[in-house]
Amino acid sequence: MPPRQRVAVTLPAGTSVAESIERVRWAEENGYDDGWMADSGPPDSLTLMAGLAAHAPTLRLGIAVVPVYSRTPAVLAATANTLGQLMPGQVILGLGASSQTIMDQWHGVPLQKPVTRVKETTIMVRSMLAGEKSDFALSTLHSRGYRQPPLEQEVPIYLAALRPKMIEMAAEVGDGVIFNLWPKGALPKMIEHVHIGAERAGKDPMEVEVVNRHMVLVTDDKQAAVEAFRARMAPYYATPVYNNFLAWAGYEDVAATITEGWAARDREKTMGAISYDLANEIAVIGTADECRERIRWAGETGIHTHIIAPLSLDGDEIRRTFEAFTPENFPR
Question: Is 240 part of a structural domain of the chain?
Answer without folding.
Answer: no
